[in-house]
Amino acid sequence: MSFRKAARFKSNLTLLAMLWIAGAALSAQSTPAAAGADDSAGEDKQAVGGMLHYDLRFAQTSDFGGYQGGQQESYLSGDASFRDFSRHLPFSLQYSGGYGWLLSGPGQPGNLFQHLQLSQSVVNSAWNLTASENVDYTFETPTTGFSGVPGTGEPIGGSAPTNSTDQTILATNTRSLDNQTAASASVRLDYATTLNFGGSVGELLYIDSNGQNTDTLASEVRVSRRLDARNSLSGGYGFSRFIYGQGPVSQPNTAQISYSQASSLQISFKRQWTRKISSTGAIGPQWISSSNSAIQPSSTQFTASATVQETFRNGGAGLAYNHGVSGGAGYLMGAENDTISGNYSRGIGRSLNVGVNGSYLRTASLSGNGVVHGEYGGVQATRGLGRYFSVFANYTVMNQSSSLSTSNLSGASNVLNTMSQVIGFGIGYTPRELRIKW
């Protein structure tokens, strides 16, 4: 990573840290102890803190097929999450990371993986502000779980569908850093109408120069109207620009393209069917252009998305679809994407949990040079052993095919073009959540 990129990444984290510190100071100032009240009672009522959850895992994995066929690894990994109790200054953190040791089979450039999400909000009765940071470092395209590394024993499934990432083309032996910094604000105009606006800056960097580095700038403004207790309608305008930096670009004449961009108008509808089931849908036109229309001519397409979620007493399920334009996943100069993802998890009895997830990824070149079709899915069973320990077994499959020639696909040697399977098993340690006060 260049010094300029590293400095920008550090400045993003610094801004988020400053917002969190300011929020903590405001919280401390806004909750003085009541005069004349009992000290211990006052401390309990005004306690500020949160809930910390973490777990540790050891896993053994075996790979079959693909470029890593015959590979066996041991992984030591863990998760941590924190949420505070503040109503006006909520802060959240989620982390997953670990390291793998190669036991046999073909090697790879790195076995370290990290994923961190931070969010800090300032909430008022009439408005709120939110800043967030999402950083993902891995050695292959993220797939199952929060970390994206299959076989490690990390929980999969749930009510929220897998979030689509910038990397919609499956690749192995490819170290990448995907960083997204975002800020948003909403203002209530009246009892049923809200104005929302925000922006984000993203960086997709390939450490070993075997993918196309891409910077993303995005902004959006949206007006939402609550129709009744269960239904709401919104409309908005969005703009995204994808700027291509240094990287292996083997497509003819694409060095002349410095950016591609898309702007869209979208109307969306949300319905809360029951307390546990909700759905959203959005659609609208999208206009695409680039800095060299002779290579990538301007066009008009459409953008669309839909989600359905259901929560259970001890699990959940979700399904999501998205269609739109992306920066090309690090291997194309702009792409049209279709993604379908689904999640499911369920507790069976007191000690057994089963999770399933899967995705279909279609990535088409904006210049019409071909299409990449990718699919992956995973299933995991976890069984508790006493109060703190558990054992797990999982299976993950990935498959991808492409009509793109190697001359039209950057870093083609690392792009998966066959089926790859991973089997994992191991043991986990999950203590009780810790309540933290300050």
General description of the model:
With 438 residues, this protein is mainly β. The chain has helices spanning 3-29, 39-45; strands spanning 49-65, 72-84, 91-104, 112-123, 127-138, 176-188, 193-206, 214-226, 231-244, 259-272, 277-290, 299-312, 315-326, 335-348, 352-365, 371-385, 389-402, 419-429, 434-437. It has a single domain (55-437), classed as Porin, CATH 2.40.160. The chain contains two helices and 19 strands. The protein has an 18-stranded antiparallel beta barrel. A hairpin with a 3-residue loop joins strand 4 and strand 5 (127-138). The longest helix has 27 residues, at 3-29.
First-residue to last-residue Cα separation: 38 Å
Instruction: Give me the strand/helix succession.
Output: HHEEEEEEEEEEEEEEEEEEE
Helical residues, percent: under 10%
CATH architecture: Beta Barrel
- Number of strand segments: 19
Query: Major sheet, described briefly?
Result: 18 strands, antiparallel, barrel
Q: From the structure provided, what is the oligomeric state, counting identical versus distinct chains? A: single chain
CATH class: Mainly Beta
CATH names the topology as Porin
Q: What is the overall silhouette?
A: globular
What is the typical, i.e. mean, pLDDT? Answer: 84
Quick overview of this protein structure:
The protein is mainly β. Helix content is 8%, strand content 57%. The protein has a single domain, classed as Porin (Beta Barrel).
